[in-house]
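Below is a filled-in request sheet from our internal design queue. Each sheet records the structural input a requester submitted and the sequence that came back. We keep these sheets so that new team members can see what a complete request looks like end to end.

REQUESTER: design group, bay 2
PRIORITY: normal
MODE: inverse folding
CHAIN LENGTH: 384
BACKBONE (tokenized):
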């Protein structure tokens, strides 16, 4: 395989899988009537769709067969993820479980945790949220103040997490908390992770409603919440290493490039065949950037598939990808200005554009601000 072929991610096996997921999505949309959405991995929660997708074999692809998964690799999951996003499918219900918590359980979970949770993730029926960010600790997770104190049989958890997508609908939340006092000389030490039931006594979930009326973010408060020892994820005190490993999966996927792809594709398809040279140049710019970023993202997926560290390149994908997503909104708006406002598709395109503009400020924040990620890249290149 040439280097170019590797970046295309179109090996015969992957091509067959891509055809299969496309056929599933076309048939499922025809039967159930969902519409392609902007930012579908964050904003479109449909538990029934997730269950159907899993039953068809498209969730838990990297989970070993002994735990109910397909036992395939990161590139197989990449191809399926890419198609789900390109079609704007409603995938939010199972997204975080499949993307981050399954790999974390495989790397750090106990055998009991793997046997309890991985089959449910593979079935598309474990809905989970991420408990990392706080009001004074967004991209700087070392500033997290949520604490867990050891008690008889487990831990007492107190603190507040914010921007927790889907917490009001999820079953579990993975919480990063301090389990030992802050050492100013070693800010990343003393963290642990807990896989907390969201119906536990002492948890309050308050909605954060966006300007457009959408509700998928939440503030989650923990008031002396008891977490049994069985729900500690990994090792006490090793939370920072575990979290940074998870972030490689979060930052490098095609969702960092394709959140607006439904708008881009719809706008291009609506353009007249006799579009002028300026329009052709705008379309060419969009696709040139998208293809370049996709190839960078695929290179990270291949690195993860080989078991190597990809933190620096994952941060680069996230930085460049989310800036492209923001730029693409206005580039698509410029394309729409060239359309006949009376065209049948004009109203649908205007709706997609309005949603994309509302979501656009989020793109460069979630998963770490771009300024922080550039620091990650610089350190990875040896700059101090």
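RETURNED SEQUENCE:
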């Amino acid at each position: 395989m040439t280097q170019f072929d590797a970046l295309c991610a179109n090996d015969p096996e992957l091509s067959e899988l891509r055809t299969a997921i496309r056929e599933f999505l076309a048939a499922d949309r025809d039967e159930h009537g969902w519409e392609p959405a902007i930012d579908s991995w964050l904003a479109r929660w449909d538990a029934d769709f997730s269950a159907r997708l899993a039953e068809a074999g498209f969730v838990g692809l990297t989970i070993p067969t002994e735990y109910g998964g397909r036992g395939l690799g990161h590139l197989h999951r990449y191809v399926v993820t890419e198609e789900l996003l390109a079609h704007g499918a409603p995938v939010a219900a199972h997204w975080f479980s499949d993307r981050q918590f399954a790999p974390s359980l495989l790397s750090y979970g106990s055998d009991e945790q793997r046997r309890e949770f991985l089959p449910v993730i593979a079935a598309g029926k474990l809905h989970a949220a991420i408990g990392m960010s706080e009001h004074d600790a967004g991209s700087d997770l070392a500033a997290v103040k949520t604490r867990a104190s050891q008690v008889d049989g487990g831990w007492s958890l107190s603190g507040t997490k914010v921007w927790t997508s889907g917490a009001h609908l999820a079953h579990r939340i993975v919480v990063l908390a301090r389990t030992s006092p802050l050492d100013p000389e070693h800010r990343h030490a003393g963290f642990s992770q807990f896989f907390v039931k969201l119906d536990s006594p002492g948890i309050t979930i308050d909605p954060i409603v966006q300007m457009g009326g959408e509700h998928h973010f939440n503030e989650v408060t923990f008031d002396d919440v008891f977490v049994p020892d069985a729900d500690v994820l990994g090792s006490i005190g090793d939370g920072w290493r575990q979290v940074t490993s998870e972030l490689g999966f979060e930052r490098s996927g095609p969702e960092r490039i394709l959140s607006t792809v439904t708008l881009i594709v719809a706008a291009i398809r609506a353009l007249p065949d006799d579009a002028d040279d300026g329009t052709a140049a705008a379309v060419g710019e969009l696709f040139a950037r998208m293809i370049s970023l996709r190839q960078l993202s695929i290179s990270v997926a291949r690195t993860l598939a080989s078991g190597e560290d990809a933190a620096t390149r994952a941060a680069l994908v996230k930085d460049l990808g989310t800036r492209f997503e923001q730029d693409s909104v206005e580039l698509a708006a410029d394309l729409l200005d060239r359309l006949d406002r009376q065209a049948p598709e004009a109203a649908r395109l205007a709706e997609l554009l309005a949603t994309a503009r509302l979501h656009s400020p989020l793109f460069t924040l979630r998963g770490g601000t771009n300024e922080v990620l550039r620091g990650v890249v610089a350190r990875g290149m040896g700059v101090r």
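SHEET NOTES:
- The two ends are 37 Å apart (CA to CA).
- The mean pLDDT is 86.
FILED BY: M.R.
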